[in-house]
Amino acid sequence: MASTAAGENTLFITIDSCRVDTAVRAVTPALDRLGPLVVAETAGTFTLPAHWAFFSGFLPKPRNGEHFLGRYEQLWSHDCRAWKRSTYTVFETPTIVEHHVRSGYFTIGLGGVPFFDPAIPSSILPALFPSFRYRGERAGAPTTAIDADLPTRRPLPTERLGKFTEQLLRNEPFFGFVNFPETHFPYCTPGAGTLDDHTVDALREIGGHIYRRAALGEDSALWKEDRLQNVHKLQVRALEWVDRHLGPMFTALSGAARGTLVVVCADHGESFGEQRLVGHGNTSPEVLHVPLWAGHINR
Ligand SMILES: [Zn+2]
């Protein structure tokens, strides 16, 4: 058990709905510090099953046989499934979260999409953590309530990241988790500026389809004027917005008393019109393939 025996910190980050080609196109100097971008395959097509798999030991699996940290087939896994010599951390609890709680680590989460809202009685994901901060839309908020000013009024975890980082550093060793909804529909961050009318219309149209998972009609307005490509660009800008906030966080971690293992991945990808689909929850390659980075800071 290399990591826990060494008393190392762990930071696990999910960038919700972020596609592989979004990560390729975005300028991400902070994420690049962790190591090369790896294309991996997720076990879940939407937030709940994907995170349940990750916390249970099934992180996205690299598609081209790359090893985590250059050496390990898995970063963490339950001992009944792990081949211990090729797994970085082996745990004997139901989840990697509980493993760190029982091992005495300060364990806390911060999120983003409504599956992480502790105010919802059925939310099982935040309930895995002794403490969870939520900064995001309330479940059931209308997906078509889009206007030009959405980028500046959307509640986002990046606003809380500085305080969250201070809390982690005051309580080493820690297991910290962050779910960023910035890259999730409606893909808006303050970095996007004010939305133009075509983009507002496109997001409203996607919002009307996103949870019905029905194919777009040939007469959909989304096929006009590169609207879906422009929405995809919003996700690229959202990832760059997240990366700009991760830069100071990683710099702060470089001054921590202990080394920190940092794992960043998307929980699933997103369809932007391929096979006439938008959103996620489908089994297309754009949803099943996800970007992943893993590396150490201050080790
Ligand atoms: Zn998700």
Protein model, in words:
The relative contact order is 0.23. The chain is globular. The chain is built from ten helices and twelve strands. It has one domain (2-297): Alkaline Phosphatase, subunit A (3-Layer(aba) Sandwich), CATH 3.40.720. 30% of the residues lie in helices and 19% in strands. By secondary structure, the protein is an alpha/beta fold. The strands form three sheets. An eight-stranded mixed β-sheet has the order 3-2-12-9-1-8-6-7, with helices on both faces. Strands 4-5 form a two-stranded parallel sheet. The model is unreliable at 1-5 (pLDDT under 50). The structure holds zinc ion. Zinc ion is lined by residues 16-17, 46-47, 113, 267-268. It comes from Streptomyces eurocidicus. It holds the Pfam family Sulfatase. Residues 163-292 form the Sulfatase N-terminal domain.
Provide the fold topology.
Layout: H1 2-5, E1 9-15, H2 20-25, H3 29-32, E2 38-41, H4 47-56, E3 61-62, E4 74-78, E5 87-91, H5 96-102, E6 106-111, E7 132-134, H6 150-153, H7 161-170, E8 174-180, H8 197-209, H9 227-253, E9 260-265, E10 271-272, E11 278-279, H10 285-288, E12 289-297
Parallel strand pairs: 1-8, 1-9, 4-5, 6-7, 6-8
Antiparallel strand pairs: 2-3, 2-12, 9-12, 10-11
Zinc ion binds next to loops.
